[in-house]
Each structure stands twice: as C-alpha cells, then as structure tokens.
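Predict both folds.
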Amino acid sequence: MKLHRKQLVELVNMIKNKKIKPAEIILYFHKRIVKLNPIIKAFLAFTREEDLQNSVDDIDGKLPGIPIGIKDNINTSIFPTSCAAKIESNIEEKYNAFAVEKILAEGGVIAGKTNLNEFGMVPPNYQDSLITTLNPWNLAHIPGGSSSGSAAAVAAGLIPASLGTDTGGSVRIPAAHCGLVGFKPTYGLISRCGVVAFAPTLDQIGPITKSVADAAYLMDIIAGYDVQDPLMSKTPEISFTDKKKLDDFLGVKFGLPADSLNNKVANSTRAKIKELANKITDLGGEIVDINLPDVEITKITYYIIAQSEVYQELTDKIPKNKGLCSKKDGLSNRINLSNSNMLSKETKRRILIGGFVQQNKFLYSQALKVRTKIINEFNDVFKKCDFVLTPTTPYPAEEIANKRKVVSEYTKPDFTTMANITGRPAITLPVGLSEDNLPIGAQLLGDYYADAKSMQVAENLEELLSFSEIRKEQLALF
C-alpha cells in the first residue's frame, strides 16, 4: 500500500476505521526517510528506528501515530535546534515548542528536524550552510526557502505534513515551488513560544501539507492561546474544520491587482492565474480590479524591519554561540576573522544591514510608521473585496545552478511579504504546472481572522483544479 500517496486526513481515517495500525504508519514513513533523505536532503536529523519500536498501537488523539516534520528553528525536546547553522550552540536546554506539544498531545510523532536556510535567511544563490535540499519535482531546482526541508519532505512523501515558519513567505514560497498547500495564519493565532525568532513582529508558524483539508486539520490542533506568548491573539478560537462546503462563490469578491500580472511575472504563471480567475467567475465569484499599496515600498519596509529585528535577535539571544559577536562589539567588529567562516554570507549581510539600521534609529522608526500606513491602505483594499488573489511567486522554482546577483533578491517582484507586514492570513495552493513541469502556486490573502473562510474558499478552488492527480502522476518516482 502506497501510504505516502495518502493525505494526512486519509491516514487518520484509516487508523480510526482500523484499516491500519499507527505503528505501521510510523515505520512506513521512517523507511521512506531512510531511503530517500540521502537524495532529497530534507531532514537534518530524524528519529532512529529503535526509538520508534516503542510506538504502540493504541495511540489516541487526532494524530494517532502520524509523523510530522518540524523545521529546525522550532524547538523539540528530542532533537537539538541548530537553525541549520555551522556555529556550535552552547544552549543545553531542550524543550518542546507550544505547537510541538499540541501535536504530541494528539498522538503525533516527531519524524525529525527539517532543513532550512541558515537562521531562516534565504540567500540569492540558494547555498545552504549544512546541506542543500533538492526539489522533488526536479532535483536540479530549488525547493524554495526558508522552510525548504519541510516542503521537500512532504512533496517526496517522506512525511504527510510538516511545520514551517513564515516571516516573509517562508512557508508559502517552498509550498508553491513543491506543489503543496502552505498556510500563514493571522498573526497571533499560533504561539511563537519555542521558535528561534527571525523577526518577532513578522514570524508565524504555519503548516505545509498536500491539501487544504490537511492544513485545516493541523491548524485546529496547533492553534490556540498560549499565556507564554505576549503577542498571542485573545480573540475567540477559530475552528478550521467545522465549516460548510461552499456550492459556489456567489457574493464573494476577489481583488486582482494589475501589478500581479505584469511582464515581470513568468508567462506560465500569468496564464495560470488568469485561468483561475475565469474559474472563479464561472462559479459566480466577482473579480475586482484593485490597486495594492506600492509593492516596492512594502518590500523596502519589510526588509528594514526584518533585518533590524534579525540583528537584535542574533545579538541578544544567541551570544552563547561560538563565533557570534557580542552586542557590545562595535559594528566594524560584527563580522571578523573569528566568525567569518562560521556564518553564511547571507547571515553576515543581514547582520550588517540590521546593525546599520539599529545605529540609525530614524530608519527603523520611519519604517514602523510606513508599516502602519501600509496596514491602513490594506484596510481600504478589503472594503472592496473579500480576498486578494495573486501569484505566490513571480516564477516557478529556479535551477540551483542559477547564480543570481545579491541585489536581485531585493528587487524581484514580491507577493508574500504583505501578509507578514500587515499580519493577515494567506494561503498558497497549486494551480498547475509550467512548461517545464514545475508547480505554480496561487495565493489568497484574507482579512484579519478570516483564516477559516480562506481555507473554505481555497478548498473549493482546490477541488476545481484537481492538482492531487497531477502530483501523483508527476511524482511517481517518489
């Protein structure tokens, strides 16, 4: 039985109906990891078979024996958290992040720690510090970052689902490149307790799965109030799975920004988004022309805030790590001979940019003011529509060998950071393949706390597109 072709909710139902035992599922996926991880390089560490032998068949809960991958910037008690960095951590305390605890409480199994770009910082030429994860759709192409291992592991069928973190698109971009669903919830719906922060006002844990139903199922488990996280939302809990299926999109307005389909977007991507818009209108939905806040200003604002917070986090919270400078060091000593070989170029670049911003407080304070202005402008956008429809990425996954200039990362079209800057929910789902048979993702940006509604609409779109069959055919090797 090819269990790796099954979706998470299908596996759960098989266990509940006693068609398979939890221990069988645990060992099946473990064997997949042992066999295929040397090729895909999705996991930095995974649970040993002898430890899995203790798994019993009477595991209870919503995830009985279901293996879940955890991005290696999310703490677990059974594995150290390295953030895929070369520097040696002296932090000995190991504990489970709040979201991990909730998975374990429902009978879930931690399959292992998945790879990421060092500290979650995606470099222009996609060179990772420890190992380079490959895209299962084409091993010569990137899986996207920074939750690269989490996405590649699900796409290759090493695990049914995984957790990533999303600071500017780090769940949605790899999900799109790997033909999966990736969800970034409204800021504050999932506790950040136990996450090694990149930028605390932007970071959010999110699921990466094969279907919208799987993402909703996992969200029901990991969302919830945590007193340990001071930035948690105190709104009533949202149910992601207790929702009625939509028969059509009558009365639902989808804002389509003109800039999202300009000549900087790949032809295949533009064509698939137009096809999706036509399907929406066929089901009674309304496509509304909208103008988003200046994309370039949004991106610049994001980078100023993100790099400043990165600098603060690395110099405040990880001074114990060998090779990382102390906060008391001058800016000129941030990158020196003692650590130049231990941090990636991208990490050093962002520390320097963040240090510059921190020494020029005016830049950061102005960026916060602009962020408020952007939020207010998006508030006006959502008076005209229920969702904003865009590509998730401007083009499909690039080749790993494609050496891009550093500046290209800061100037390419961007559709994901607006969800983090404003704190709104956003979901990506696969809408088709490019001429090179690489997945293309569409993103739905919703209004605050419209997370369940976003899932509901995305699930209807998913049904129209039937991408799961394409995935099974194209990824037959895995």
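Second protein follows, with its predicted structure tokens after the sequence.
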Amino acid sequence: MKRLSICHVSSGHNPTDNRIYKNQAISLQQAGYNVSIVTPQDNGFCDINIKFYAAGGTLKPLSRLFLTANKVVQRSLSLDADIYHLHDIELLRFAALYKRMGKKVIFDCHENWIHYPEDIKWLNGLSKAIAKRYIKYLYGTYLPLCDMVIGVSPHITFELKKYNNNVHMVTNYPRIDDVESIGFDFENYSARDKVIIYTGTVSDQENIIRSLSYLNDVSYKVVGNVSPTYVDTLRNIPGFDKVEFLPYLDKTALLSECRSARLAITGLKYSANVGYKEGTLGNTKIFDYMKYGLPIACTNFQLWTDQIVRKFDCGLTFDPDDPQSIASAISELLNNTERSYQMGCNSYEAVLSEFNWKSQESILFAAYDSII
C-alpha cells in the first residue's frame, strides 16, 4: 500500500522551525507518512527521513506576500504530494489551486491573523484597516475550502471555527525525549548567583530592564540574536547596567546558562495577536524555561495564570506594563530560595506530565485521520 505523502509549505519560516519540522514533520514521518518541507531558503540541514526543498525568495514581508509565496507553492506542486499543510497566511489564497489539483489541504494558523495587523507598528490606521479586511476576505473565501484547519491557541481556534467545521488546536509544547533529568538539587540551586535569564527573540525588554533599577545584586542575561539598533534604544533605560546580552547559543551552551540562573522571565505584552489579556499557548518560551526546571516570572495572561502558574505552582505573574510589578515578582522569587527551588521542580514536572509535544502529537494524528 502506498504511503501517503505530506508536504509542509512555508513562505515565512526556516526549514527547521520547531513547530513545522521538529514537532509536526518528525512525528508524521515516524507515523509512516512520506514527509517533505518546502521553504524559501536552505540552511544546510539534512535529515535522511525528511526531504527539504528550497524554492527561493526572501523572508521580507512584501516579498513573502507575492514573489516568495508563489515560488514555494509552485515548488510544492511539483512534488505531487497527497496532502499540503500550509503554514502562512499568504499561502491561504492558494487553497483553491491545491483543491483543483485534487489535493487535501490543511491550513495551520500560527498567529491570530485576523487581528495581526493591529500590532504592526509600521502600518498606519488606514493600512491596518485594509489589511484586516483583506484577511477577513481570505478567511471567508478560502478557509471553508480547506479539509482541515489547525490553530495554536484557544482564542485562535475560536475564530477559525466560524469559517470551517474541522478545526483542531495543536499547541507548541516542547518535545521531552531530549530532556535530561532535572540535574540539580537544592544545594546546587541555592549556590547560584541572582541571575535572571531570557532566551529567544529579543523584544519587549524595556519594562523588564526598568524593573532592574528597583533590585540590588541581580544580573539579567538576554540570550538571542538582537539588533545593535534595538540595544541602543535600551541603553539609556535605568537598569541597563545589569544586563548582559549573549548571542544565540546551541543546545548545550543554553542548558549551561539556564543551569546557572535562578529564574527565567518573559514579559510578553498584551496585544491583539495573543488575545490581549487572555494570552496564548503558542509562545514556546515559557514551556522551554519550565523544561529546564526554572521557576518562571511571566505576564499575567489569564491562560498562563490559571492553567500554568497557579495550577502547578511554578512561578509568579506580573503586569508587563508596570516595572514595579515586574520587580516585585522577581524579588519574591530571588529572596525565597526554597520556594523558588520547589517552583522550578514543579515546572519540570508540569512539562513531563502535561506541557509536552507527546500530548499534542496524538491530537495531530487524530486530525490527519479525519481527512484521510
């Protein structure tokens, strides 16, 4: 019997994106599908079980919308897959083309696209209104054509269900097959310096840095690629002298940095994309911190507060617009060592028991079964 083939198509992600490759593609390949990934660029990565194709084009916004989107779609069609799994809003309009070719089509909504333009700072009010209207047109015209639609968080799937009857929520929880044991005891944890760590895309740092001006004997490590221009905008903020910027680190080096920190922080701001104060399960950062056994200081989103922090007693929340609120959460974690250590242990256990990719893998498989 022929193995069904799946082609993941993206005009805005790199080939080894966590959600597309490390979670979905690997799981589907291990389940017996032939899996390929088409993206604009090739980063040189090789997997003997999954085929990668570079279609050309850039990841710049305007190029993505037109040139790059067309390139990845044409390259994907040349593979003649059975199922096409689309990962970007600019690809949604091609659902009709795939359907005319007799293909199964999945649209995977990583973002709250219908409200996404509200958060784009370089668009003026009129442009945002036009963009929102166009995205509503895309949703209304092409989502009903899709055989299945996937959302990454409750507020996103709620919106998608207005346009398609086969909608599933598959979140971005981390894989735990490569997670070591927690690897430290209370004596090790209590001996650490008062280091706060942030990892990933470097943004929304202003109020976290301001909060440091209220704290003594702390240092803040920001790990990830950051533009010199953005660093310059932060330089005059009180508390900047306590910040150390580190470049992107490989897995081993990142683990080492996390194992020297007392807590991890994320100050994601209220925005349309994350459902404002509801929050999102699509942001992987908080779960990665928990995977390393760290107590977390995070935005007081309703989802994070109720379903993660309070439920598992694994950290404290704060108002991301209030530096004193951030400082209070940090101070309480740093000055209550035994409590913070236990919260870190709780974080790790929560990932093992609930916030892991295995729980989402079964949902993904069931979703695919619904269209085969």
